[in-house]
Every structure is written in structure tokens, then in C-alpha cells.
Amino acid sequence: MIGTITLNPAVDRRYNIDELAKNTVKRTEDYHASAGGKGLNVSRVIKLLEEDVCAFGFLGGNTGDFIRSEIKKIDIIDKFTDVCGTTRTCLNIIDSNGDNIEVLEKGPYISEDDKNKFIEEFKNEVENLDIITISGSLPKGIDIDIYSEIIEIAASKGKKVILDTSGDVLLENLKSKPFLVKPNKEELENITKIKLDSEAAIKMAAYKILSKGAQNIAISLGSNGMYFFGEEGNFKVDIPKVDVSNTVGSGDSSVAGFAYSISKGKTIDQALKYANACGMSNATLKGTGQIDMEQVNELIEKIIVRKI
After folding, report:
1. Active-site annotation holder among 12, 114, 164, 252
2. Which helix (DSSP H) or strand (DSSP E) does residue 88 occupy?
3. Residue 44 to residues 36, 106, 125, Cα–Cα distance (Å)
4. What percent of the residues of the chain are helix, what percent strand, and what percent coil, each to the nearest 5?
5. What pTM did the predictor assign?
6. Could you give the strand order of the β-sheet that contains 100-104, starting from the edge strand earlier in sequence?
7. Where would I find the beta strands (DSSP E) of 124-225?
8. Among candidate residues 65, 57, 19, the one with its CA nearest the CA of residue 41
9. Which residues of 115-127 are buried (b: 16+ CB within 10 A; e: fewer)?
10. How many CA atoms lie within 13 A of 48 on its CB side?
């Protein structure tokens, strides 16, 4: 079973419109609400990969109740901690050209008692987990180094952790030696201050992150594929072209592909193919954190992994 951690989940609301424009009123019949936050996107894709998944984090208010009801429908095991306050809502407005705007709320304040309850719940379950993913931003009230605390608890039981966050939160928690981190190009440029305009620059930035504690790093480059640097060598992943509908959740889908592959003991070559195929499949669909398994299997056959 795979564990996912989403400390700042959300109800994700998607609206598809004809064209983004300032100072206009738009009407649509194409909209959807889902249980969101990066870790819940990961959870949903893991279930589509037909693997059991246990979800941890914080939920509160009517939006929290909505998320609980949604994950129950697809048999995600609910280990969320109840909190005062209301789980946030995040908006994604997409037009027919593929342009989009995201509006992300901050989320509720988390008390020390709520944080301690969450940690105890995680400690009680960690031995049952094959691998853990940690995704997204931190809610108000939570210390910046909480991900390190979680990673150290997991490591004490011999469990690997994939950490998918950004900025200062990522930098602060590298000290706990996560098994894998997965920044995209923009996120890596922001934290290393290195312009990623060549393979040499990408390698330099990757090794800067590895030197701070990460065991492996996967750098997603959108339509240009992925680079991977770490314990099993350095790799470039070349991917085929696909018709893109909505890229939101593609990074989370890649994390799910990695987690699934690692839990199944697949080779690094296979893991990179699964991760990229899941991310690409999500990008072709309107939903967030969704994949088509037939398409994933077709894409795996077309993805090329080269050692560099």
C-alpha cells in the first residue's frame, strides 16, 4: 500500500470557457469539482493504477466533508485529521486555446494539537506502507520543517519518501534525505538561481540539490521530457508529442507513476517510463489527476530513456 500526504488539500473547481478576457462575464456548462491538492491527485492516479492508497493530511468544514465523500467513492483509505476551519477551494479556469488561470486559497490554520494528532496517526500506519509521497504547500500554523519530521519517521521504519514541493519548503527539507524530489524546470531555476538553458546547466542545478541531501532528483521539462540524476545514474527521458488539454495535475500523476513503480520493484528505466506516461496521459484529459490506462500503456512503448 502507498501512503500519500496532503497537508493543504483543496476542493479543485475547473471551469472551461471560450476565451480568457479581462472585465467580462463568462458562462459555461463545462465545469467540475473534485477532491484536490497535489497529494490527492497522486492518490487518485495510484488508484487508477490499481494499487491501494492511504491518504493523510488535514480536513475541515463543508469542503473537507466533500473531499471525504469523494475519496470514499473510489476506495482511497481516509486517514485525514479533522481540524477547525474550512479546507480551501482552488479554481482553474481554462479557455479553448489551452490558456488558463489558477486561483489558490491559503487554507485553514492548523493548531499544534492537530499537528500532533496527525503525526501520531502517521506513526501508527507507517509500517503498513510500501512508500510515501509528500506533496504540496504547507497550511498556516505548520512549521516549515514538518516534512523532515515525516521523512525521518518513515526512514526509521525503512520506508522511502518522494517529496514534491517547491521553494524554501523544498530547500529546508532536503536535509532529511528524501529518496526522490521532483521539481519542474521553473521550480529548479527559482531555488538554484541557475538558468536551465543547457544539459550542463541542468546537471549543475541537479547536483546542487543532491549535495543538500536528496538521494535522487527528477526534473520535469513539460513537452521536452525529463532528466533524472541519482544513485542509479543519470538519464534523459524523451517523450512523444500528445494533444494537450489540461496540464494541471500532470506533475502529480508523474509522482504517482514513480511511487507505483518503486512499490512494485520496477527498474529505474521502467519507473521513468511509468512516471512520464502518467504525466502525459493526465495532460491529454480535462480532469486533474486523471489517467487513461490504455493510453499509459501505449505511451510507455513510445518513451525513450537514455543514460547520459
Report:
1. 252
2. strand 88-94
3. 9, 22, 20
4. 40, 25, 35
5. 0.92
6. 31-36, 10-16, 88-94, 100-104
7. 131-135, 160-164, 180-181, 216-220
8. 57
9. beebbeebeebbe
10. 24
* Amino acid in the structure at residue 123: K
The residue whose grid cell reads 505511451 is 299
Q: Which helix (H) or strand (E) holds 19?
A: none
Grid cell 525513450 in the structure block, residue: 304
Active site residue 113: no
Q: How far is CA 103 from the centre of its chain?
A: 18
Per-residue pLDDT of the chain in tens (308 residues, 90 and over written 9): 999 999 999 998 989 999 999 999 999 999 989 998 999 999 999 999 999 999 999 999 999 999 999 999 999 999 999 999 999 999 989 999 888 898 988 889 999 999 999 999 999 999 999 999 999 999 999 999 999 999 999 999 999 999 999 999 999 999 999 999 999 999 999 999 999 999 999 999 999 999 999 999 999 999 999 999 999 999 999 999 999 988 888 999 999 999 999 999 999 999 999 999 999 999 999 888 899 999 999 999 999 999 99
Nearest Cα residue to 55 out of 1, 92, 14: 1
